[in-house]
Amino acid sequence: MAAKETEKTPEQMQMEEKAYERQAAEAEKSVLEQLKAMKKVSILIPDDPTNPDDKIVPIVFNGVVYTVPRGVSTDVPEAIAEIWKYSYEKTREVNQRIENSTKKEIKGM
Questions:
Q1: Which pLDDT tens digit goes with each residue over 69-92?
Q2: CA 81, CA 35: separation in Å to the nearest integer?
Q3: Which residue from 8, 16, 17, 50 lies 20 to 30 Å from 74 (Cα-Cα)?
Q4: Strand runs labelled E in 17-63
């Protein structure tokens, strides 16, 4: 027979939740310190003509969100620039595959 788990009181659950929140805040502080220590590079995220109201691009690094404006050269930590570059390249690759697939002639039987 399996050991019965003890149920936690609401107070215990609240204390655990606060402890997790403190741990998350400390981890975020550490990540922010890492980002601040990184070399800064300039990136320019182009405007999106299909979404003219989309003026900000969120870029996430280990739980920390950088909001980078479109159409403005912005200095960001190197890791943020690399994440955006990778995402942009993958998006272009997918868009190219979609475009290529729609150009193929479909032959009937």
A1: 999 999 999 999 999 999 999 999
A2: 11
A3: 50
A4: 40-43, 56-61
Report the number of distinct structural domains present in the chain.
Answer: 1
- Residue identified by tokens 């403005």 is 72
Evaluate the CA torsion angle 76, 74, 67, 91 in order and state its sign. negative
Query: How crowded is the C-beta side of 105, counted as CA atoms within 13 Å?
Result: 3
Domain that holds residue 66: 12-102
Structure tokens at 98: 């979609």
Query: For 7, phi and psi rounded to 5 degrees?
Result: -80, 145
Structure confidence at residue 4 as a pLDDT band (50, 70, 90): low
Q: 109 lies in a domain? A: no
Contact 44, 72 (CB under 8 A): yes
Taking a C-beta distance cutoff of 8 angstroms, is the pair 76, 40 a contact?
yes
Buried b (16+ CB within 10 A) or exposed e, 18-45: eeeeeeeeeeeeeeeeebeeeeeeebeb
Residue 77 covered by a domain = yes
